[in-house]
From TrEMBL:
InterPro entries: NETI. The lineage of its organism: Bacteria, Bacillati, Bacillota, Bacilli, Bacillales. This is NETI motif-containing protein.
Length: 66
């Protein structure tokens, strides 16, 4: 029998709400202890210059095994 890791990261998927992700965590037996957000950038060329334009964010929860 394999045991679950004590900590695990959960990413909020594209078509998922934060509540859905937290429900998924609790079903797997984890409690959220940290939330991080990272911006997602898209490169666009404007006036012959490459610019990084923010186009979203990635939300990640770190879960601790109950």
């Amino acid at each position: 029998m394999t045991s679950k890791p004590k900590k695990k990261k959960f990413v909020v998927e594209e078509n998922e709400t934060i509540d859905d992700c937290l429900d998924r965590m609790s079903k797997e037996g984890y409690m959220p202890v940290r939330r991080t957000e990272q911006p997602i950038f898209k490169e666009e060329i404007r006036n012959n210059v490459v610019e990084q334009i923010p186009c979203g964010r990635m939300i990640t929860f770190e879960g601790k095994l109950l």
